[in-house]
């Protein structure tokens, strides 16, 4: 993207969100660009005001001015309870990894994280199918909004992990607890002609489960890298580091 086009993008960000958000314009452009181009499964809006109309206006105006284009798919702004996500209509019931993610139980009892069977998919299947139906029923090559209220018995942590394309998804019954658990944080960053090392994915796993989970993560990284090799628009890097938190932040 040229500096002239980027200047127009900054102007739209300021127009929609105000001057104080111009500082996140590059990060915001990358998050939207990655979803539109299928590099990122979905974007959970976590650093802008949770205002659907402002996000819609931002994206609509940027498309009218030719900053973003939709080719062969549409773009949905999903309001999921009180959260906002941006999802491409290319999303399927199977996430970016091309297979079911691996579930890790972090329930407060028994308190020891463990790998569990993929039968946990059944606990969120109806929610994912509802999202799939709403997203795919949208107009062709258009921006549109959809809303879904998820029942309280559905684990939103698991739903978000699924939608965001993580290879390892947390699940818990009741409350989550990994007090002082040593974790490994995995991240993938993307670079192009505008931004260097933009965080694309970031997730954690309990370090004690690394021997059981490493092969799933390796395959996930290989698939992302293979996809990156098909284009010269961006490059990928992967990182991992140990972290310790008082309580697991999901």
What would you say this structure looks like, in words?
The chain is α+β, with helices and mostly antiparallel strands and 250 residues long. The protein has one domain (3-244). The chain is 33% helix and 24% strand. It contains six helices and ten strands; from the N terminus they run ααβαββββαβαβββαβ. The protein has helices spanning 3-17, 25-36, 52-64, 121-136, 156-163, 210-228, and strands at residues 42-44, 75-80, 83-88, 102-105, 114-116, 143-148, 168-171, 182-191, 198-206, 235-244. It has a four-stranded mixed beta sheet, with helices on both faces. The chain has a three-stranded mixed beta sheet with strand order 5-4-7. A three-stranded antiparallel beta sheet has the order 9-8-10. A hairpin with a 6-residue loop joins strand 8 and strand 9. Helix 1 (3-17) runs antiparallel to helix 3 (52-64). The relative contact order is 0.15. The mean pLDDT is 86.
Short description:
This protein is of the alpha+beta class. It has one domain. Helix content is 33%, strand content 24%.
């Amino acid at each position: 993207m040229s500096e002239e086009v980027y200047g127009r993008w900054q102007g739209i960000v300021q127009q929609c969100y105000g001057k104080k958000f111009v500082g996140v314009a590059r990060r915001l452009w990358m998050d939207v660009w990655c979803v539109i181009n299928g590099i990122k499964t979905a974007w959970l809006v976590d650093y802008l005001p949770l205002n659907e109309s402002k996000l819609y206006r931002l994206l609509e105006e940027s498309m009218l001015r030719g900053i973003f284009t939709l080719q062969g798919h549409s773009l949905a702004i999903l309001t999921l309870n009180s959260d906002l996500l941006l999802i491409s209509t290319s999303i399927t019931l199977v996430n970016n990894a091309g297979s079911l993610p691996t579930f890790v139980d972090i329930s407060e009892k028994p308190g020891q994280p463990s790998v569990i069977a993929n039968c946990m998919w059944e606990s969120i299947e109806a929610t994912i199918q509802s999202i799939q139906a709403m997203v795919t029923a949208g107009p062709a090559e258009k921006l549109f909004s959809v809303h879904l209220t998820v029942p309280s018995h559905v684990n939103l942590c698991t739903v978000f992990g699924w939608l965001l394309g993580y290879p390892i998804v947390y699940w818990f019954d009741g409350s989550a607890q990994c007090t002082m658990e040593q974790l490994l944080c995995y991240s993938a960053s993307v670079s192009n002609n505008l931004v260097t090392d933009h965080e694309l994915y970031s997730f954690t796993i309990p370090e004690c489960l690394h021997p059981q989970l490493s092969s799933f993560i390796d395959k996930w990284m290989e698939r992302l890298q293979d996809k990156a090799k098909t284009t010269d628009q961006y490059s990928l890097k992967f990182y991992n580091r140990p972290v310790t938190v008082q309580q697991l932040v999901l």
